[in-house]
Amino acid sequence: MAFAFATFAAVFLLLATASCAPAGTQDACADVRKSSLELNRIAKTVSELARNGSKDMSDVSASLLWMEANDMCDPGTLKHEPVTCVRKIFKAIRSYKSVLKTVDRFPCCSGYVSSVKKALHNMETDMGKCVKLSEAINHQEESHTSNGQGIRDYEQLILCHYTMDRLFSFSILAARVFAVGDPAHHTEGSVQKCM
């Protein structure tokens, strides 16, 4: 009798668990993909509008390159066509290096810049070793550097924080893209290193 009850309880729990499984997972994932792209588009627009409040600061902050949802840095695209994403990451590194030269002139920011400058340079160098960039990137490109003239003292701290926050966000994306090595060699469950 106890065995029959235990069997019934086990079957009941199995059926109850199965009935709680999410339905329409594919549709929900497609919806999340659409809504995340929409959020990215709106957040970028709002950020640009908020940033343009000060014309002095917008000259410097506008020179930072944006990583965008359509830069093809998703895992599926990275496996088959990593060049677009890698090119954009490399250009973003150059953009940050340029802006860091400007904010390095601010007394409130020079300590922060000295902390990240070498790591940013190392990443740029390591990318050249990790993936073939010769066909993907024109090494002669120059980034626009503002001299920081006309930026008021109180804006310097804001611009410094803004730049460091953006660099941190960028570093998260870059770390995810390169976490398992050369993006062209990403595979399911792979922990392959740079080639």
TrEMBL record:
Q: Which UniProt keywords apply?
A: Signal
- The domain of life is Eukaryota
The signal sequence is: 1-20
**What InterPro entries has UniProt attached to this entry?**
4_helix_cytokine-like_core
What is the protein name stated in its UniProt record?
Interleukin-12 subunit alpha
What is the organism of origin for this protein? Scomber scombrus (Atlantic mackerel)
Lineage of source species: Eukaryota, Metazoa, Chordata, Craniata, Vertebrata
